[in-house]
Specification:
With 291 residues, the chain is α/β, with parallel strands linked by helices. It folds into two domains: 28-114, 3-Layer(aba) Sandwich (Rossmann fold), CATH 3.40.50.10860; 138-269, NAD(P)-binding Rossmann-like Domain (Rossmann fold). Helices cover 39% and strands 18% of the residues. It has helices spanning 7-23, 41-57, 72-83, 103-109, 121-128, 138-149, 169-176, 195-200, 251-254, 269-290; strands spanning 3-4, 31-37, 60-66, 90-93, 158-162, 184-188, 204-207, 224-228, 232-235, 243-246, 258-261. A hairpin with a 7-residue loop joins strand 9 and strand 10. The mean pLDDT is 95.
Length: 291
Amino acid sequence: MPNLIDGNKISEEIHAELSEKLANISGRKPCVALIRVGDDPASVSYVAKKSKVAAKIGIESRLNILPETTTQSELDALIDKLNSDDGVDAILVQAPLPKHLNEQATFNRVAASKDVDGFSFSNLGKLCQENKTAFVACTPAGIIELIKRSGVETKGKKAVVIGRSLIVGKPLALLLMQKGIDATVTVCHSKSENLKEICKEADILIAAVGRPLTVTEDMVKEGACVIDVGINRIPCAEKKSGYRLVGDVDFENVASKCSFITPVPGGVGPMTVAMLMSNTVKSFLLKQDKH
């Protein structure tokens, strides 16, 4: 059987490390401002989870809830207010936003020094330059932590990323090719030809496509490390909810071929929140260093 990469356990280790770091700091604690527009159930749940983890670590969270009908100018005004508030170290705008709002413009509105989601052009540019002050998007950063802390070898290894989103695929590819990680990276997407053949060459295969059970047994090399970013609901009559959660990887049939694999849930998901907290503490400490 493969080594199961336990995201819950590793995220708890990171929480403890951050708590210990903050315990040695006198004065005010780091503060993250969370912005939620509307009442999308998933967004409500995610924001509540982030607030709960922040409190456990010793980070103040300020929740800003705006109605579904909020205009772009109203959202911009709130972001500008938080940007200029010295008591706020980090700003997170919960995605997805309602369709009438411009997500890219919103992410770029957040001050680079408070953009702990790492989605702005400023932080993505810093990531390209391997600038240590960059805030890296939380899911890719969490994946790198999972790989490092599980002892997965990356130097010179072939890494295949399925997905090219701004949130996962693009920043993850940049991280994997960084000096010190040194993977040889291929990025695949919906227009890629010979996907199965490309994936079969991967020592490290990361699925971030948002489609259930896309990666099947015949796409995975024997002994590969497989990281499943997807979380999808599929019908299940046996569950009270009427659905069950699965990843982008057919875990049941793929796992036996892997050296390492992440489960869904309990793999990448908890790491995203952990890295948000890590970025918040980083922002706070960078600000202290400037004073």
